[in-house]
Inverse folding.
């Protein structure tokens, strides 16, 4: 933060707020009502998204003193990879609705800051183009598990060839949640062809069309809508993904400890405790309340990751204390992108990491390794 204060002595203040909860307000002025409603909105009355914040705020850190925190190191090992910090950018699709530079700008920002970028299946840019701007940087691919097996197979082949290493399979979206802010405007980016780039560029997808995408885009959108989710899938279906993907697989959206155990039994490598930022199940358990139960059930067998509601460095600290190995952020970087492109995303990452580093130091920790249940008031329960 001294960089920021020193900038102040030269008359420069940050272009964006360092309190990331304020980015949403500013983005509201910048974006139209449709896009901001889509990004900010939650399922039902928004209660799940509020519960995510409330649960993180309810937990309080209990600092330790006199533990020599001069040298600190945020690095962690996640799924066999050495990461500089316990942070990754969550898969957020359709980013062209907030900024024309879209996913490639977010990916460049992640690469510049050394945090993994998780590219959404529903990105507005084909996965190969995003990979190209990332050089050797760590990139993961999020799969929306299509109804059509050939399309899934083709996505996995393309992702592997483009250098994505970890597969994150989102299971909480077999259909879209009830999202009143979008419903009242009848606003769904996909129906305007946004977020379909990976599909429209896919040979297996194209093979299912009567006419090429450019000749009949409406039919292509309808074909996409028909295969996007599949409510018929069950646990044994995971064997197919396990066969198709050699690298680590993480299941996204796990909230029940029994589902976490089923994930381990199915040969998965990790679970991402998440309620999709409160966008899917209305009245859902707060992700931070589900986290310690999942960690207790499978923490020894699987890598446990977390998202939904993280807005500050101390939120990251709390998630680690509750059993996560690393956390993801979604909306904050989407707002950073909306407000200042790649630089805005880098600003968000840098604020989170600087605040995490300070929270560690001020709480008596030199790194994530010593954070545990006793770092929080009342333990992790
Ligand atoms: C998402 N999320 C999401 N998840 C996913 O697996 N695939 C996707 O394409 C998307 N798309 C998406 C779009 C938008 C606009 C948002 C806000 C979120 C969910 C995302 O990965 C993550 O779970 C949440 O964003 C985490 O919550 P916070 O950090 O936004 O509170």
């Amino acid at each position: 933060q001294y960089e920021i204060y020193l900038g102040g002595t030269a008359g420069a203040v940050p272009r964006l707020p360092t309190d990331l909860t304020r980015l949403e307000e500013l983005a509201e002025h910048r974006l139209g009502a449709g896009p901001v409603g889509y990004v900010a909105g939650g399922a039902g009355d928004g209660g799940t998204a509020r519960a995510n914040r409330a649960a993180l705020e309810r937990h309080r850190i209990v600092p330790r003193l006199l533990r020599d925190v001069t040298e600190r190191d945020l690095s962690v090992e996640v799924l066999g990879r050495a990461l500089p910090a316990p942070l990754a950018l969550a898969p957020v699709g359709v980013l062209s609705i907030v900024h024309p530079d879209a996913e490639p700008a977010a990916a460049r920002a992640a690469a510049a800051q050394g945090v993994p970028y998780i590219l959404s299946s529903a990105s507005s840019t084909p996965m190969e183009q995003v990979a190209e701007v990332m050089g050797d940087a760590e990139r993961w691919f999020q799969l929306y598990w299509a109804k059509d097996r050939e399309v899934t197979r083709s996505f996995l082949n393309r992702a592997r060839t483009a250098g994505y290493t970890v597969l994150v399979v989102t299971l909480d979206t077999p259909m879209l949640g009830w999202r009143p802010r979008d419903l009242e405007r009848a606003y769904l980016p996909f129906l305007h062809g946004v977020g379909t780039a990976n599909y429209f560029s896919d040979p297996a997808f194209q093979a299912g069309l009567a006419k090429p995408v450019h000749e009949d885009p409406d039919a292509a959108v309808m074909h996409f809508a028909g295969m996007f989710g599949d409510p018929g899938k069950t646990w044994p279906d995971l064997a197919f993904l396990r066969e198709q993907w050699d690298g680590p697989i993480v299941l996204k959206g796990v909230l029940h400890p029994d589902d976490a155990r089923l994930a381990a039994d199915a040969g998965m490598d990790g679970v991402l405790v998440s309620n999709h930022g409160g966008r899917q199940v209305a009245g859902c358990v707060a992700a931070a309340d589900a986290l310690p139960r999942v960690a207790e059930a499978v923490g020894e067998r699987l890598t446990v990751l977390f998202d939904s509601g993280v807005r500050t460095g101390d939120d990251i600290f709390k998630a680690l204390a509750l059993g996560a190995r690393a956390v993801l952020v979604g909306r904050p970087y989407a707002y950073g992108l909306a407000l200042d492109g790649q630089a805005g995303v880098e600003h968000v990452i840098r604020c989170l990491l600087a605040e995490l580093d300070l929270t560690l130091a001020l709480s008596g920790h030199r790194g994530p390794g010593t954070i545990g249940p006793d770092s929080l008031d009342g333990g992790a329960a």
Notes: The pocket of FNR is lined by residues 38-39, 90-93, 120, 122, 142, 170, 252, 274, 276-277, 307-310, 329-331, 334 (CB under 6 Å). The chain has 16 helices and ten strands.
